[in-house]
Design brief:
Distance between the termini: 134 Å
Largest sheet: 5 strands, antiparallel
Low-confidence stretches: 209-219, 524-528
Strand order of the largest sheet: 2-1-5-4-3
Number of domains: 4
Mean pLDDT: 78
Shape: elongated
GO biological process, one term: phosphorelay signal transduction system
Keywords: ATP-binding, Kinase, Membrane, Nucleotide-binding, Phosphoprotein, Transferase, Transmembrane, Transmembrane helix, Two-component regulatory system
Number of strands: 13
Number of helices: 22
Radius of gyration: 47 Å
Catalytic activity: ATP + protein L-histidine = ADP + protein N-phospho-L-histidine
GO molecular function: ATP binding; protein histidine kinase activity
Helix content: 55-70%
Pfam families: HATPase_c (PF02518)
Length: about 675
């Protein structure tokens, strides 16, 4: 036996050495040819080591470890063919190559070290080579199935020659892993198999031109390759389990192990023919090894372009039409959740009668629980895919309903897209479902945003109405306050001619103010009496006299008598409000100072009190904020805001200087208005 081994391995080593010289003499720079040279050299080294072992000059484990280089070099050659690499750097940088080398060398050094230091059983050493040869078989099978006719003609000698030796090694190491030792009958015969493979490798080398092997990877081929790998790993596991049973089973070991392996084969057959298992494997392969059916970037841009066309009235239609377009159907509708029922908000070429909507509600409950879209054609073929869902298929077919898609916004279902049409189409696969789920999520956000905009617009309308009401109440409150002053002082000053004159002036102002309010209500817009030249100092004097009826007293002073172009009524109301606020912040024994200063066309109007004062934070955050009041129900919180708006409309500004417990000074400044002496 040793002589046969020595002869076989010696001739094989010499033959692969000659093959290396032939490849080297060709001086080809093609990557695949260079890798075949490396593989031939590694085979020469491996078979030479085996020859030395046959002559008892080298331990068997060392010869096997040297042969590792041959297996890895052939695997790299097959990777280069399948990935169509053109340089060694490109091949070694490929993710698949890096993963293979890391697992191969990592497993090799880990297991060899474990066996050498008696930390692992010899079985793991042989299992390593079972795995390496199994993966080499998978690579050979993929290369053969994925190549076209011309490539197969070039590669089949390589695949048969290398495949025969790899299958032989797989069986030998699988048996060795069960009994923890190599059967030397297999080991010595292995050299003869290597000799037989040499001519086939030489033929394949001559047929490969420039290393250009065109590979087409189909999903079906990858599926069958994956199933082959799964079956190989499963049978290997069953064989190892059978060995353990046989080893520990005593007299009954053989019977139990045979029964166990037969049962395992039956389980494997059931798994391989089970449709659901095969379908899951196909989806897994398609998701992780192939390009998507849909180009998501282009689809995303198309969706954005469609959404940009939407107006405030048509966004329901735009969203529904996009779903119809992607499903190649002519009809559909959009239903939104309204309380505990669904409301049809848009329909096109689909009559959404009450019974149909009832069915959609049942589908909606199912979609809310599962987040699935419902393909009516698939449901008709295989209802078991939609457990706990009951649909009136005849009614759906009557209305040509093809699919129902849930619409989610932030994990909450807000409605359903329904697609219908008489057009024929295939049942939706996992790619269609993934794409449609992504689209409906985006459309759900789009619809939610537009619904929120509608609610916001309604809220703004109510806000505008409330603001108008607040200004109206504010104006009426000011008029009421002026008339109340007349009533409060009629007994004391009723016979005073000046008081009577002021009464008529106040009534005229109140009448004018009421007319303005009515104009605002009729025209639903700000009514402006118009700017005109007015005597500012005279208006300030009237305000001081009018407000002095109440305590504290108003002290008015002016450095000049001037006129400005502005709205007299609004100006009067603004100054009156600021003075009134100063009075309300002061005690009756205090005084409020109203002062007019003119300096080189710069007009300053100061209202100064010694009342409660305000903090700087209050001035910065609340003083000029509309509808924010410290007076409770007695105030509307718009007086100072209205004053600021009026002053700024005249390119002026209001400066506030206040200190809590000391008092406040409001300074109204006009710098760019034309000023004349009154």
């Amino acid at each position: 036996m040793e002589v046969i081994g020595l002869f076989g391995y010696g001739v094989a080593a010499f033959g692969f050495f000659i093959l290396s010289i032939l490849i080297l003499s060709a001086r080809s720079q093609v990557l695949q040819v260079r890798l075949m040279l490396y593989a031939a050299l590694c085979a020469t080294l491996g078979f030479a080591s085996a020859a030395f072992q046959s002559n008892q000059l080298l331990p068997l484990p060392v010869a096997i470890m040297v042969d590792t280089l041959r297996i890895i070099s052939w695997s790299l050659l097959l990777y280069a063919f399948s990935m169509e690499c053109h340089s060694l750097r490109q091949l070694l940088r490929a993710k698949r190559t890096i993963t293979y080398l890391a697992l191969s060398f990592g497993g090799f050094f880990f297991i060899v070290a474990g066996v050498a230091f008696d930390q692992l059983h010899n079985t793991y050493f042989y299992l390593l080579y079972v795995g390496l040869n199994l993966w080499l078989l998978v690579l050979l099978e993929q290369l053969f199935r994925n190549s076209d006719g011309a490539s197969r003609w070039s590669l089949w000698p390589l695949i048969i020659g290398l495949g025969a030796l790899t299958v032989f090694d797989f069986v030998m190491y699988a048996q060795a892993s069960m009994v923890s030792s190599v059967d030397f009958a297999f080991w010595y015969a292995r050299g003869l198999i290597a000799i037989a493979s040499l001519p086939l490798l030489l033929i394949s080398l001559r047929r490969v031109k420039r290393g250009e092997i065109r590979i087409f990877v189909s999903r079906q081929v990858v599926f069958y390759s994956s199933m082959l790998l799964i079956a190989g790993l499963y049978l290997l596991l069953m064989a190892f389990s059978g060995y353990l049973i046989n080893y520990f089973g005593g007299e009954w070991g053989d019977l139990i192990s045979i029964s166990f392996l037969a049962l395992g084969a039956m389980v494997l057959a059931v798994l391989l023919v089970t449709e659901s298992f095969r379908r899951r494997i196909k989806v897994l392969i398609a998701k992780h090894f192939f390009a998507n059916k849909y180009e998501y970037r282009e689809e995303w841009l198309a969706l954005i372009a469609e959404l940009e066309k939407a107006t405030g009235q048509s966004y329901y239609q735009v969203a529904t039409d996009f779903i119809k377009q992607k499903l190649n159907l002519s009809g559909g509708c959009l239903l939104l959740v309204s309380g505990n029922e669904y409301k049809v908000v848009y329909s096109s070429n689909l009559n959404c009668e009450a019974t149909l909507v009832d069915n959609f509600e049942a589908i909606g409950r199912f979609c809310q629980q599962t987040h699935w879209l419902v393909d009516i054609d698939e449901y008709e073929i295989n209802p078991s895919h939609y457990q706990q869902l009951s649909i009136d298929v005849d009614l759906m077919k009557l209305h040509s309903v093809k699919a129902v898609l849930p619409i989610f916004s932030e994990s909450t279902m807000i409605g359903l897209f329904v697609a219908s049409g008489k057009e024929s189409r295939e049942v939706l696969n996992w790619e269609d479902r993934d794409f449609l789920n992504a689209v409906t999520k985006q459309l759900g956000q789009f619809i939610s945003l537009n619904l929120a905009n509608e609610q916001l617009a309604q809220g703004k309308q109510f806000e505008a109405f409330n603001q108008m009401s607040a200004f109206l109440v504010h104006d009426l409150k000011n008029i009421q306050a002026q008339l109340s002053l007349i009533s409060a002082n009629k007994e004391k000053h009723g016979t005073n001619p000046e008081f009577i004159e002021d009464v008529f002036d106040t009534i005229d102002a109140a009448s004018l103010r009421l007319g303005k309010v009515l104009g605002q209500l009729r025209n639903r817009r700000q009514h402006n009496a118009g700017a005109k030249w007015v005597d500012v100092s005279a208006i300030l004097s009237k305000v001081a006299a009018r407000r002095s009826v109440n305590k504290p007293e108003i002290i008015y002073s002016a450095t000049a008598s001037i006129g400005m172009e502005l709205d007299e009524e609004q100006f009067d109301a603004v100054i009156n409000h600021l003075v009134q606020n100063a009075q309300e912040a002061s005690s009756e024994n205090d005084k409020v100072y109203l002062e007019l200063k003119v300096d080189n066309k710069k007009v300053q109007i100061q209202i100064k009190d010694s009342g409660t004062g305000m903090s700087q934070q209050f001035i910065d955050t609340r003083l000029f904020k509309p509808f924010d009041t410290t007076k409770g129900n007695a105030g509307m919180g718009i007086g100072v805001f209205e004053a600021k708006q009026f002053v700024e409309s005249l390119n002026g500004k209001i400066h506030v200087d206040s200190q809590e417990g000391v008092g406040t000074t409001f300074t109204v400044i006009f710098e760019q208005l034309e000023v004349k002496e009154a």
